[in-house]
Specification:
- Two copies of one chain form a homodimer.
- Chain A is α/β, with parallel strands linked by helices.
- Chain A has two domains: 115 residues, 3-Layer(aba) Sandwich (Rossmann fold), CATH 3.40.50.720; 193 residues, P-loop containing nucleotide triphosphate hydrolases (Rossmann fold), CATH 3.40.50.300.
- Chain A is built from eleven helices and eleven strands.
- In chain A, strand 1, helix 1 and strand 2 form a beta-alpha-beta unit.
- The radius of gyration of chain A is 20 Å and the shape is globular.
- Chain A starts with 6 loop residues before the first strand and ends with a helix.
- At the A-B interface, helix 7, helix 8 and helix 9 of A face helix 7, helix 8 and helix 9 of B.
Chain lengths: 333, 333
Amino acid sequence: MKIKPPYLMFLGDARDQLAAKTANGVAFWRPDWCLGQVRLKGCKADIGLPDIGLEDAVQNGVKTLVIGVANQGGYISDEWSQTLHKAVDLGLDIASGLHVSLRTVPGLEEAAGAKGCQLFDVRHPVETFDVGRGHKRSGKRLLTVGTDTSVGKMFTTLAIEKEMSARGVDCSFRATGQTGIFIAGDGVSVDAVVADFISGATESLSPANDPRHWDLIEGQGSIHHAAYAGVTLGLIHGAQPDVLVLCHDPGRPHMRGTPNILIHSLNETIEACEKAARLTNKNVKTIGVAINTSRMSDTERLRELEAATAETGLLAVDPLREGVASIVDQIIS
Amino acid sequence: MKIKPPYLMFLGDARDQLAAKTANGVAFWRPDWCLGQVRLKGCKADIGLPDIGLEDAVQNGVKTLVIGVANQGGYISDEWSQTLHKAVDLGLDIASGLHVSLRTVPGLEEAAGAKGCQLFDVRHPVETFDVGRGHKRSGKRLLTVGTDTSVGKMFTTLAIEKEMSARGVDCSFRATGQTGIFIAGDGVSVDAVVADFISGATESLSPANDPRHWDLIEGQGSIHHAAYAGVTLGLIHGAQPDVLVLCHDPGRPHMRGTPNILIHSLNETIEACEKAARLTNKNVKTIGVAINTSRMSDTERLRELEAATAETGLLAVDPLREGVASIVDQIIS
């Protein structure tokens, strides 16, 4: 799988800006790849790209229509279908992060086959994986982990990739979720693989590499999340990280989606993740804490970062404010 | 899903007795359900049931042909196909534990539809599940856990079900793997569900129940297995067990399939499983250790059980030798 840029971002009839969160993330991290946006009637989202038609997009070199939006009702409407068919007729590949497969759109798979276009359903992995082996692979690996889901693991990993790349460090962002896959052009939705293959899929995503090369692996879920911890644990085992970066959002009263389960402390989370990681890499260590302080005043912000350092003895930054240079200093020192 | 007994056990052209391990397990635990076996030319397995033809089976009231055997080469051969088609023609349901779906046998799904027969692919769950919620459900739950895969978790759970049922305790065996599902007639192959739904599928398998009712949930994998720990952790969270029983096979030099990872001690395994289980049930406790001593002399056996008790402070039995009465005494005391 290799999704080919440049991209045209399909926003459909997104009901609000949040519904286009994925498209937003792709446009933020890969501005050079995103040439325009397509919005249908009633679309309430705008990711700040020029509105261009499919024909213009093709003439400007676009290779892939990316569906980076949540669809209303969970099915693909007739209006959407028409746009997708038109894209394929014009020779575009389509990459989708929808829960429902592009293959359910009547005639689309056949049309794509006839035109030699590819359909990428990133939430429906088609690869077959081996089960995890747990053997040590060459190369270095960083994994982001979190006190909860949606606490900035992808953002932090990409910020580290950007900083390392700017310093000339040989590194690769390894995507494990839909937005990350559009940003990387490839990857594996680990929460969508068959449960037996979580760690095996992660091993294949991050194969043996040059001893100085860094794989920067996007984390998922939380080891203490009652719904997703299995994904997180398999991902930790398969990633065999040398370095963990803990991500945290201080605003959460409880784990997302499970109101009766409180957020564990930073140290409890670090301890659980390191313990799990030692199964496949005895030398794992946590190097820093990335905190989302976007809803805080400057005073609160600094207090939060200081408290995190006091608790953990680690560097604490907001990747969006301080950046991750100090974390990268620690990693490649 | 409800697989209807009585069963006819299909052994195909099994290359040896081990290839019919699943069929053997079903015949051992549900002898009243298994009326006969079907063996093709070259079959090297025999599970001790009468060899009967499909027509005789139907006349004797058989409802389901159960494929409890590993297929050579991983695909369904023409010879197998003929038998499966004949079964459907005679009105039998088919239940399969094969990795390859019955739906890949040309014409079989259509033939089954026309005859009103059901095809159960227990390794290919078709249900959709919610993600785990982690809320407390009424009723009592026991889960078996292990120091490795294939260390007797299903056997131990079924032995406890048998003992509890004999004492009139209201209980249900909850199957999470293919053999268990044939034995229960229903269940969920948790290692075959999409990774996001491991704990959610387990929650649906063991719904709220009468406060005195015991769900006896078959464990899978090991929390320290580099390939399968994600499944184990999601299963623990979804099961929210009140009681754990640890299963162990002392003969293992290392974890099955990962030669570089040693077996963790009984106490390390108990500690890790209890810690995980406390996320959804603060009152979890481990009640005993079930050890497979089948390859040991009587002296070795007793020494092994004593050592397990000395290490853990818990009852230790071989369910096949001592039975599990003493464990059940602890649970329902």
